[in-house]
Amino acid sequence: MTNDVLPNSPTPRQKMRVAYIDHxxxxxxxxxALARLIDALHDVDPLVxxxxxGPLVASLMASGVSVEVLPMxxxxxxxxxxxxxxxxxxxxxxxxxxxxxFRLARRLRALRPxxxxxxxxxxxxxxxxxxxxxxxxxxxxxxxxxxxxxxxxPAVLVVRALIAILPNSVVVNSEATRATLWLRKTNAVVVYxxxxxxxxxxxxxxxxxxxxxxxxxMVGRITRWKGQHVLLEAFARAFPGGxxxxxxxxxxxxxxxxxxxxxxxxxMSRTWGIADRVDFRGFRDDIWAELSRMDIFxxxxxxxxxxxxxxxxxxxxxxxxIASAGGGPSExxxxxxxxxxxxxxxxxxxxxxxxxxxxDSRLRSQLRNNARIRAERFSPEAAASSVMSLYGLLLxxxxxxxxx
Length: 404
Ligand code: UDP
Ligand code: GLC
Prior knowledge:
By secondary structure, the chain is of the alpha/beta class. The protein is built from 17 helices and 13 strands.
């Protein structure tokens, strides 16, 4: 834990001082996306304030980012989104969240950042409130679709109302996420989560030999809505008794339900007789090394993925993508041009695409080539430039005196 951003400390070239707020300290997608965004914002002096200690603290600090942990009560910090809105629970959570917002507001008053930028759903609520209390302009970065297939209905309504009222500006990670807001057409700015192309060493694809198995891979947190079971079942149908291998990269991260689902996946592989051709890799830090083993990349989310950084990563790594249509994937991939889309959860459709792509090396190389070009659209420079324009507008309209 560090506290090296002191109030009134001089910052080189008068960089904007932005406090980024997140309740999670795991290297989960939204937090990886935050780290990538901060890395691209060269004119920002960042301070990340997390509600727990965890691996993200060390990884941000290793990239030179200041981090503080302002701990939140576990019962609220770890409250799963599927329980918010069910009876009984939210009262304690509401009390804790409000108390936390006041503590954070106190801290913000001491730190006096130019802006607050919230990164997770919970942090959007308490971080926006805290920023308002402290009189600091706030950007709420929404990375989750506010829809009933993702959150309980009461939570959807409450968050939609809060996001319409609390922040000065809203950033969303896709048009699909924006479409779940009430304020959709007005001031929410779409900033696609950026991914840098791997460098030459990261990209170095192993020379494949005739004896290498054909690898179908997936990367993502192990959780039911990401649909690892859809891939396993489609794989079992597409290649019964074949030599193809499926590689599942990722681990359960949040709670017992995800751990139980991981166990279910192993059980399924045994039931479908593919256990010896399924490689569960667990969480891997070096995603480029994992992608370099893959011949086809599958994304299988059951509900529309808000954005889907893994798809852009696979495209940049030169692995042909099959993704479930809807949400971010439909904004990233143009079907049959730079990837293939299938209806979410449709096991037969996925099995058919797997067979087709397995048998058509020309299609694989066409998708691969187009995808590399398409994925450049999701560059850190593009994201940084949109965010900097937004920060500039916000500072000019909120606190002109302070920036002069
Ligand atoms: N990831 C990783 N190692 C793993 C599994 C996932 O580094 O074992 C990374 C993955 O490369 C991607 C992020 O986790 O950068 C997942 O982000 P995405 O936006 O695809 O989904 P989210 O988890 O945010 O819903
Ligand atoms: C969230 C979403 C994911 C998105 C990521 C970065 O974790 O689930 O789809 O890619 O944020 O914006």
